[in-house]
Structures are given as C-alpha cells and as structure tokens.
Design brief:
alpha+beta; Beta-lactamase; 2 domains; 8-stranded antiparallel barrel; 17 helices
Length: 490
C-alpha cells in the first residue's frame, strides 16, 4: 500500500468547516474492496440527522457518465454508432447553421465539441422546479439575457425547436472547440429513446443500474422521497448570497435534460458503479459494459487543458503523477458531487455533498492522493506558476459573456487582470489574476489555485475566455444592453 502523507479525514473536516458544508459522504474502493464508506455532518442540519453512505444525494453532471455508458451499450448492440450524425436519429435537430448541423455526430455530443455555445436553456428546462421562487435574482437574470418569464422547455421536441430558432452562432465547425454543452448531452437521451423505443430512464435502469445492483439510484422524484434517507438541499439564499446556506426541498427537475444531470444516488450504489471502471465493465462478476467500451469511454478525445482531456461523459488525465485518472464533477442547487478512478492502481472514490457550489473534488482527491503516496493537497489540475506576460495585458481588457448568465469584465492593470463577475450565479468582484504564460492567467480562490485562458481568432485577436469549461465570447460594451431586450445573438 502507498505511503500515507497525512490524514484525509482531518483534511475533509477542515474542508467542511471552511466551506460551511452541512453534510458529505465519501466512498473509497481499493483493489476490489470497498475500503471506506463514511458520512460526515448532516443530511438534515436542523433535525441533526446524520449523512450516511445510504443517504441519497443529487449527482448533477456525474449523470453524464451514465448516459455515455448507455450510448456505448447501444453501440455494442449495433443499434447506433458514435459516428452517426445526430440527424440520423433526430431528423428535427438543427442549429442556425444548417450545413454544420448535418455534420454534428453523437461523438460531438459525447465530447462537448458540437460547437453549440453556452445557452440559457438550462434555466428554461428547470423553471417549473422553482416556479415563482427562482434560485437567482430575477433582475440579474434579465440583465444578463436570461428571461425569467420564458416558457418552460419540458420536452425533447421543445428543446429541438429551441436550438433551431434561438439566435446564436456556433463556436466553430463541429470538432474544433471544446465547450461544455448540457443541451447536447440532454439530447442524447432523445437519441436513446428513438433507438430503443422506450424511455431513456427505463433503458438506463435496465441496461446499467439493475445489472450493477444499484437499487437506490433513480431519476424518479416520486421514488426519491420514499427512500428512507434523502438529504435536504442547501443553497445560498440568492445570487451572490453570503453567510452560509439555507435549506430547500426544491430538487432541480428538467425532464428533457435528465440525461445530463438528473440522477440521484447514494455512496453505497456509487461504490458499485466505480467497479465498472476498475474491473473492465464488471460489477461483482456481472457484465455491465464490455471492456472495449470502457476503454472507448475513458480515452482522451477533446483537449480541456494541458494534460486534461474529455472522453465520453468523463474527463481524462492520462498522466496524473504516473497513473491515468478518470473523473467528473457535478453541481446543481443543493448538489456538489465528484468521482475519480485510477484504474491502473485499482483505486477509485466518490464524494456526494448537499451544499451547492463547493469543490467536492478537494476532499476526495485528498483521500486518493494519500493512497497514491502524494501530498494530500496535490491539485487535480496542474496550475502554472505566475510568469511574465507575453503580450500586453490591454489585449485582454473587455467583456466576456455567455448565454448561461456568466458575464465577466476583465480590466487590465499594470501587472495583473481584475475580473468582476456580473451574472446569475456569480457576483464576485475584484478577483486578481496574474499572467502565467501565453494567454493564461492564475489566481487563488476558495482555498485553492485556479486558472483561466483566453483564445484568439484567426487574426490573432483575443476572441474568447475559457472559464468553467465554457467558451465565453468577447463582447463590445455597446452590445450589452441588447441582452436585456432579448436581442443579443449568443
């Protein structure tokens, strides 16, 4: 066993205190054994009910790995190919660029390389969940181009119509850019339904969850509340809220985006799920996915950052201090989740938390780092050290905005950039970023180090900011009032 380099439990305790997380559960699988399943804090803080490995939490975007697995099961059965154009299975699919639309494939959706930019649809698909009490300030939403009174998007047909008729420009031809797209992954659920003739949820249950013995994992909100242990959700009071978290029983529910974030589960079940990656597609000897499909899913396709790539529904770091690492995070109101596996070392883990917007990766990586013989605080991503700027900082001055309500004002100073966020979920001001090489900048935030990069167009001009796995286009200040009027072309 690897030499221990600290106490992961103490690290997690400090993380919970600093982040004010009410409850979290950690699961570790090592060399064929469920080495540790531990709960910390409360699933219900007011009632003092403890969080345990049986407590059901939201998974948010960890769901994407399940959807990718379902697609690969259908590929094994020769019912589709990941190289199929989306229009082969969804003839109604389209974007404002008909020619590019016909070239977008299942592979592009699986790897977030379709070229679809960040759009506000995630708020419109979840609008029935929060009704008249949105988890954001309505005035802020309208100011950044998200209409709080938009008609709900409930069905795949409505999502397809939204993508055909909304005013936006593709980021580029399919396959050129990586930019996280919930819409693409959500529509993979529609592809599954067209191919199987049953619902995406039923197929996933029959093909993945039941064979893996995952009896507490579900999309169904009705079943959710009949489980013996279900967490309360905790979120900031509103956009930019400070002072901790307030409880809520409102689970984000969006029927046409379930394939990208709708699963709920517990650590007992997810410790079984990790075995699929660690044992070549088997759980307790039961074949869930072929070994070849696991390898396909965890191969590096789209570059996210130096040394980090996106596979199918998972991120891949081919060399994490000497071993490949496969991982994914998730976040929604009241949900922060993260899982990671190092297949060559027979090691994997998962953290589920009931606090919104906290880094569940930090405590899990502390656990895994200890077992890999690394310092507990070893970063998941290699963040470069500050270095002299290679270009004048004035080139990065301006607004960078997305349809998901993420707006950043970058202001150049003598030796750093200042970021001011004016968006739905971020109102942080005065964030200082130091140059760190070609078009890259680093900062300290939330107890760790972070990085951003800028991208240039064919003429060499700064055209976009890569932040939070999304490409945010540069905007002229004169364009911004058009967002409030719903006239901005995303």
């Amino acid at each position: 066993m690897a030499r221990r380099t600290g106490d992961p439990a103490a690290f997690l305790g400090r993380w919970m205190r600093r982040s004010r997380t009410p409850g979290a559960v950690v699961g570790i699988v090592e060399r064929g054994h469920r080495a540790a399943l531990r709960g910390y804090g409360y699933r219900d803080r007011a009632a003092k009910l403890p969080a345990t490995p049986r407590t059901v939490f939201g998974l948010a975007s960890v769901t994407k790995s399940f959807t990718a697995m379902a697609i690969l099961r259908l590929a094994e059965e020769r019912k589709l190919s990941v190289r199929d154009p989306i229009v082969r299975h969804l003839p109604e699919f389209g974007t404002p660029d008909p020619r590019a639309s016909r070239r977008i494939t299942i592979h592009h959706f699986l790897t977030h390389t379709s070229g679809i930019p960040p759009l506000p649809s995630i708020y419109y698909t979840g609008i029935r969940s929060f009704g008249g009490n949105p988890p954001y300030d309505r005035k802020v939403a309208r100011r950044v181009g998200v209409d709080p009174d938009h008609a709900p998007i409930d069905t795949y047909d409505e999502m397809l119509r939204f993508l055909r008729t909304t005013r936006y420009r593709l980021l580029g031809p399919p396959g050129l850019h990586f930019s996280y797209s919930n819409e693409g992954f959500g529509l993979l659920g529609a592809v599954i339904e067209r191919v199987t003739g049953t619902t995406h949820e039923r197929f996933l249950d029959e093909a993945i969850l039941r064979p893996a013995g995952m009896r507490s994992t579900t999309f169904d909100p009705g079943i959710l509340f009949r489980f013996p242990e279900v967490t309360t959700l905790y979120s900031p009071p509103r956009t930019g809220g400070r002072g901790g978290f307030v409880p809520s029983q409102i689970w984000w529910e969006d029927t046409c985006l379930r394939a990208c974030g709708g699963l709920r589960s517990n650590v007992e079940d997810l410790s079984r799920y990790l075995e699929i990656f660690l044992h070549g597609g088997r759980v307790d000897g039961e074949r869930v996915l072929s070994e070849r499909s696991v390898a396909t899913m965890t191969s590096p396709y789209a570059r996210v950052d130096p040394g980090v790539f996106y596979g199918y529904g998972v991120e891949v770091r081919p060399d994490y201090h000497g071993t490949p690492l496969v991982f994914h995070s998730g976040g929604l109101p009241g949900v922060s989740s993260f899982f990671a596996v190092a297949p060559a070392r027979g090691l994997g883990g998962v953290v589920l938390s009931n606090a919104e917007g906290v880094s569940a990766a930090r405590p899990l990586m502390a656990e895994l780092n200890a077992r890999l013989g690394l310092p507990l605080a070893t970063e998941l991503f290699d963040v470069p050290r500050p270095a002299p700027a290679e270009r004048p900082l004035a080139e990065y001055d301006g607004w960078f905005c997305s349809g998901e309500g993420i707006w950043v004002r970058s202001t150049a100073h003598r030796d750093h950039l200042r970021f001011d966020f004016r968006g739905i979920e971020l109102t942080l001001r005065g964030l200082r970023l130091r140059p760190a090489g070609a078009d890259r900048f680093v900062t300290r935030i939330a107890g760790g180090r972070g990085q951003v990069r800028f991208e240039r167009d064919a003429r060499g001009r700064v055209a976009a900011l890569f932040l939070g796995h999304r490409l945010l286009r540069r905007r002229r200040a004169s364009e911004l009032p058009r967002a409030r009027r719903g006239q901005l072309v995303w």
